Amino acid sequence: MHNHFESYLNIKDLLQSYCPNTVLELGANRGENTANLLKASEELGYKLTVVSPEYPYWTELSDTNQLHIRRCRFEHVNLNWIYGVSYIELSSMDDESIDFCILDTDHNYWTLEKELIELKRVMSEGGIVAIHDTEEFSDRNGVQDLGYFSSVDSIGSYSIRENVLYPSDVKVSRIGVDYPIDKILAEKRPYPQAINDIVPEWTVVRETKESSGAVALLKVI
Q: Does 165 map to a domain?
């Protein structure tokens, strides 16, 4: 979602336009968008909550061509970081407690349906939900081979072909929640259809097909 922060969907412009007090990021991956959100919070004054089952990390090559994993930890006065699964953590949040949400998690109908059911309750009236990868998965569902609820701890070997890194012998750690792969695979409705099925009354305020696609929805009652 970080590619949409100042271009395409332009999350920063939406934040400046709607002036939220509370912002929720569901799915942080490596934390690129989190860093952008924290910087913007210093200007706009909102509090940021991040819910992600992944530990942010980056890879680096040593002088001896060894590949290393480096953990990333965010610390900021405006940040509350929760290591957890989106729809599980949403269930414990207060009604109408979030003004702005950025959603970039598991990219399948089963997960998005559960998230939107909770967000209908958690989002304040007039709140914004920005959803990533609506074009990339417009006619299908994404499934994480290693499980969305896992983080890469180490990479035993790798190859580089055409400037693309292909890791192997990957070790991961998990947060203790089983990945519901059977339920996800059984769901044949494509990822973004959950938007029309669960929140058909919400208004599209901005949409783009660029950079895998994204849409910003306004909660209306």
A: no
